[in-house]
Amino acid sequence: MWLAKVDGLKSLSIGSDALISALTTCITSSKTIYEIGIQFTDTAAPVKKRDNERTTQNKRKDGNRIGKKPAQAWMTPLCEALVQRGKQLMELRDVSASVHDADTTEVAATTLVDEAEDAAETSGFHSLVLRLNNLSLGDEDMTVLAEAISQMKTGIEELTLFENSITAAGASTLLKAFSPGSLISTLNLEGNEIGPGCGKELHSFLSLPTQLKTFIIARNPIGDYGVKQLCEGLSKNTVPLIEDLDVRRTNMGSNGIKALSNMLAENATIKYLDISENDLKSDAFEAMGETLKKNSTLLQLNMQNLDCGPDGIDHLVDGLKSKSCPLEHLYFDSNNLGNSASAKILSCATSNFTIGIAENSITGEEPFLQIMQQKILSSEVTEVYLLGEPWF
Questions:
Q1: What is the mean pLDDT of the chain?
Q2: Mean pLDDT of 286-291
Q3: Cα torsion at 112, 114, 120, 126 (round to 10°)?
């Protein structure tokens, strides 16, 4: 593969499994290629039903899944190439295998990360960004991939598995493959079929000292149990780096939002949080209101499409108006607030604070209109986006 011999190429994506051999050659031979993408247009997964509805057709009447789907034929050669790349990196780092023992200390894990970054600088070999989206990948594929990751140790920096068919079993296998000191900075599992059965593994993974900064598990029905385990894992992590957490449409309810609020009250790293499209009512307002009084780092909060109505909005407003509130962006669209509750949210707007409240059954009556005019005249509101509000 001539591309593997050309220095300077950083990204390579393929759209056919016929090109797997060429891709694997580049992974093992090119020092400069670090971003790998696979998306086969001829075998892409069909549009799936949302949330737990989409798993119904794959289960027997007794609730057991029909026989395991074998791993994709190209997954094994891909993972073999990943392992070889990982071994090349490890050889360059000359890291003792004892660092990877189960009793790895936080100091050893941090040392491994530093050595990995130093090796990448001096050798030219970089950890990989791997995007395997919309490929109908299932649990057996995760078994093959997890084995590769466990052998690579620190070889993958970003892993995106958007819109596949991974269940809790596959997610559990994958999460267990990461070890202390892993360079993984982004893990995106959005749009799979991951349920609460991987809760313990979520807890263990998120408590590890790694380089994880972005974790996306949106549009997976992990429920309150999964969210609670996720939060407890983050709280247990003594060297957390996570900045971006997306638990949108995860079937989270009252217990989940309470666990999230408790975690955020002590967390000092998360800057971006998305809890949109969950089954949350007034308890969400109360929980987030208390969080904003205690948290000092959260810059953006997405609470869209909760359809929760105006009940409990005062709790959130109190949090938004507290002197310690760090928020710069609040996206609060499509929550069926009405005029009065929308006016209360709008009253929190300042020149340094963006608020989205479109499609909230606002009719333009008082007190909303009066507060809008006041905010514009005081230059606290300088931009207005009109979406679904015909009263303007």
A1: 83
A2: 92
A3: 60
Phi, psi dihedral angles at 366 (to 5 degrees): -70, 150
Q: Exposed, middle or buried by CB within 10 Å (0-12, 13-18, 19+), for 152?
A: buried
Question: What distance in Å separates the CA atoms of residue 66 and residue 73, rounded to the nearest whole number?
Answer: 20
Other CB atoms within 10 A of residue 51 CB = 16
Answer for the pair 358, 391: CB distance below 8 angstroms, yes or no: no
Sign of CA dihedral 253, 259, 264, 270: negative
User: Looking at 19-23, 123-127, 333-337, 373-377, which range is the least confident one?
Assistant: 123-127
Helix axes 168-176, 199-207, angle to 10 degrees: 20
Single out the residue of 252, 300, 249, 297 nearest to residue 276, CA to CA: 249
Spatial separation of the C-alpha atoms in residues 117 and 259, rounded to whole Å = 34
Does the pTM surpass 0.90? The reply is no
